[in-house]
Design a protein that fits this description.
Blueprint (H helix, E strand, L loop, with lengths): L14 H10 L7 E10 L8 E11 L7 E6 L4 H21 L10 E7 L4 E7 L2 H4 L9 H18 L4
Antiparallel strand pairs: 1-2, 2-3, 3-5, 4-5
């Protein structure tokens, strides 16, 4: 399969692109996205890139096909996109290389790509935001904070003593 073009923004995402992206990683095999709705997340709230929730409807369905996912896209600002490319590439590498090695609750990566020539990147992640219920500006409850600290401690313990 040819490398997919990385959408410059959530506006450029199509049902066909979602189908190809999910098939390229084996997230779906026979399923075909027929339509989707999009909700932009965090507008004007300090995100460096563009983040959207996609709710998928399939014209050809299969068990286990994601119904909702979160897309993270590079900044539309070319200067900021170039500055942040390293961080975006690092996040992608985390999902590919680190997350599978540790006992850490992370969203499933359905698709990810980065292009150093254009500084564009995209991640399609499992939608856990509705389960979490937190707010990146207001913060979290003490109970949510304890859960996060336990996960952070497990992550650091997995790498303790490793350079």
């Amino acid at each position: 399969m040819a490398m997919l073009t990385i959408p410059a923004s959530p506006d450029e995402v199509t049902a066909e692109w979602l189908t190809q992206a999910l098939r390229s990683t084996g997230s779906i095999v026979r399923a075909r996205v027929g339509s989707f709705s999009r909700e932009d997340l965090g507008l004007g709230r300090g995100f460096v890139g563009q983040v959207s929730r996609f709710r998928l409807a399939y014209e050809v369905d299969e068990e286990g096909a994601p119904r909702s996912l979160v897309g993270k896209f590079s900044s539309p600002n070319p200067d900021l996109r170039a500055v942040m490319f390293g961080a975006n590439e690092t996040e992608l590498r985390f999902y590919h290389e680190i997350a599978p090695q540790v006992d850490l609750a992370t969203p499933r990566l359905y698709y990810g790509a980065a292009n150093p020539e254009t500084s564009q990147s995209v991640l399609l992640l499992e939608d856990i935001l509705s389960d979490w219920g937190g707010d990146d500006v207001a913060g979290c409850s003490p109970g949510q904070e304890r859960i996060a600290m336990r996960h952070l401690a497990r992550f650091h313990a997995a790498w303790w003593g490793n350079p």
